[in-house]
TrEMBL record:
Keywords: Hydrolase, Metal-binding, Nuclease, Nucleus, Zinc, Zinc-finger. It comes from Rhipicephalus microplus. Belongs to the HARBI1 family. The keyword Nucleus applies. PANTHER family: GH03217P-RELATED, PTHR22930. One of its GO terms (molecular function) is zinc ion binding. One of its GO terms (cellular component) is nucleus. The keyword 4Fe-4S does not apply. Its cofactor is a divalent metal cation. This is CCHC-type domain-containing protein. Residues 178-192 form the CCHC-type domain. The lineage of its organism: Eukaryota, Metazoa, Ecdysozoa, Arthropoda, Chelicerata. It is found in: Nucleus.
Length: 391
């Protein structure tokens, strides 16, 4: 039987969807018929499987059952299928849990204060091994000639580093306007709504109660002994003083921040011990206030009247002396607050010696302020951030 007769007989026995696919490209041999029929059946099976994914739609069921599908039915099919297909493909990515700023600060600080694990010491080599394999620390560096000196008349004295200027939005009174919050008086990098403000709040929340804390009743006796061993002053707990930090004051209350030195500032009242640790701080008072006024409204003024400063007692020259806080002439004398003798009249040699010992012991608070300004240099400049962020 010829190939054409075989192909004609096979075409009469196939299903209508397969026949429609074979008619487009009619086969001439039996092998071509089998190959084309197989490809068409696989394509139809894949199409049916795709339509079975959405069995709830009427238009899809009609297409799957090979019924007549009108143009309006096709449009409805597109409207029903496309949104679901896009939602299935465009799955929103799941974000990993983000740690808070306070948690990041706590982890970084714990990692910084934790000492690294000691590395195992290498086995000591013999003298012969050391001579045969010298350490790189003792290898002489290659000789590098020094560059020739340039005469002073050939130096470029007119060359200056480029000056970077930034223009800010300003009010009529020349005060800058913050780009972030729109409030006048400070710039973006000093804004309390910025990331630096959140970082400062996290540092205060996590570290303040761990590193700035008052001496407890159980630690008082041992603390006084250590203070005397370092400073030579008996019954001392710490030194109290105030420090002014320059700021850009708010326009509404600028006169309140104008201090006696002639510039705008806020006051930091601090109690420092013999190891230059801040035991108590009170920051945010306007520069116009006196140190004794800030002390009167602080918590430490009530603490020295409580049971914390009632023991241990010591007898010095037949006088019972409680634990003392050393201060200067700006503060008022109190049972637990010791200051210098006045210089208005003549003072005796013993009083001069007492003033010298107290001043020598009280230097710790001045040194602590100096270390603070040396470590954080921006405190010595005029800070343009919000007052609430500084306090």
């Amino acid at each position: 039987m010829p190939e054409a007769k075989k192909v004609r007989d096979l075409m009469q026995g196939v299903k209508e969807p397969v026949f429609a696919g074979l008619v487009r490209n009619p086969p001439t041999t039996v092998d071509e018929f089998i190959r084309e029929a197989t490809v068409t059946e696989r394509a139809l099976r894949k199409q049916y499987r795709h339509l079975d994914r959405l069995p709830n739609h009427t238009a899809v069921n009609a297409a799957a059952q090979n019924t007549a599908v009108s143009e309006s039915c096709l449009r409805q099919m597109i409207r029903e299928i496309m949104p679901e297909e896009f939602r299935a493909l465009c799955v929103p990515p799941t974000k990993p849990p983000v740690a808070s700023v306070a948690e990041i600060v706590r982890q970084e600080f714990t990692q910084a204060v934790t000492p690294p694990a000691p590395s195992p010491e290498p086995h000591p080599a013999s003298y012969a091994d050391a001579v045969r394999h010298p350490s790189p620390l003792f290898v002489a560096a290659p000789f590098q000639p020094r560059p020739a000196a340039v005469p002073w008349w050939q130096r470029d004295f007119m060359r200056r580093p480029p000056v970077h200027r930034t223009d800010y939005w300003r009010m009529a009174d020349r005060r800058p306007i913050c780009f972030r919050c729109g409030e006048p008086g400070h710039i973006d990098r000093h804004c309390r709504h910025s990331d630096s403000g959140q970082f400062c709040e996290a540092v205060v929340t996590v570290l303040e109660h761990e590193w700035i804390k008052m001496v407890t009743t159980e630690e008082m006796a041992r603390h006084i002994q250590e203070f005397e061993a370092v400073t030579g002053f008996r019954q001392g707990v710490g030194a109290l003083d105030g420090c002014h930090f320059p700021i850009s004051p708010p326009k509404e209350h600028a006169t309140d921040y104008y201090n006696y030195k002639g510039w705008y500032s806020i006051i930091l009242l601090a109690l420092v011990d013999h190891r230059y640790r801040f035991r108590y701080i009170n920051v945010g008072a306007p520069g116009r206030c006196h140190d004794s006024h800030v002390f009167g409204y602080s918590q430490i003024s009530n603490a020295i009247k409580g049971p914390l400063f009632k023991a241990p007692l010591a007898t010095i020259a037949e006088t019972v002396v409680p634990p003392l806080i050393l201060c200067d002439q700006a503060f008022s004398l109190a049972p637990s607050l010791m200051k210098l003798f006045g210089h208005r009249g003549k003072i005796s040699e013993s009083e001069k010696k007492f003033n010298y010992r107290l001043s020598s012991a009280r230097r710790i608070v001045e040194n602590a302020f100096g270390r603070l300004e040396a470590r954080f240099r921006f405190t010595a400049k005029r800070m343009g951030c919000h007052i609430a962020m500084l306090a």
